[in-house]
Amino acid sequence: LLLGVLLWAPWRVLHGAPLTELSGDQDFQLFLQRNLEFTRKIRGDVAALQRVVCDTFQLCKEDELLLVRQDLDIVHVPLEQCHKRTFQAETCFSQIRAGLHVYHSSLATIQALLPEHAGLVETLQLDMANLSSNIQQQMEDLGLATVTYPSENQDPHPTFSSHFHHQVGGFFILANFQRFLETAYRALRHLTSL
Known about the structure:
With 194 residues, the protein is mainly alpha-helical. The chain has a domain at 22-58 and 95-146 and 157-192: Up-down Bundle (Growth Hormone, Chain: A), CATH 1.20.1250. It is built from 6 helices and 2 strands; from the N terminus they run αβααααβα. It has helices at 2-6, 26-57, 66-69, 89-113, 118-141, 163-192; strands at residues 11-13, 146-148. Strands 1-2 form a two-stranded antiparallel sheet. Helix 4 runs antiparallel to helix 5. It starts with a helix and ends with a helix. Mean pLDDT is 82; it is low at 1-18.
């Protein structure tokens, strides 16, 4: 786990060539296939945690919790660069890595909420760190300039006024993360078809 944490560093791409000329590159296609599988595994683990939250706290339907959500400071990481008509793989990858970093930090809320599932949360965090590292490595292999920042975690964990708010917060962190992963998965799949 320590290695996974050490690999964390938010970054962004400064300049990069469009990746369309790499669509036939075998190594790039292999990278995409492997990380599609990795993303699918992470989605499955998040879904498992969502089922635990549903079974344990009877928090299963988002529309029933929207009023409570207004009182919570729950992060939502957009991936607008991954579904615009002007899709740019390098900026999409940058947003995916930044989002993985944010959700990696947010999972501490889930670990506190479901201590008996700490092993699954830690596995999920390690998988997220590895996916982020894979993306960074691929960008470096493509010769795209990246900026790496220090790995200290500067994202404050959300605070909750009650145990119920903590439960609802956990529900929305997982729901938002699942949507984030679905968009990231579609973006990777889109790249395989270029």
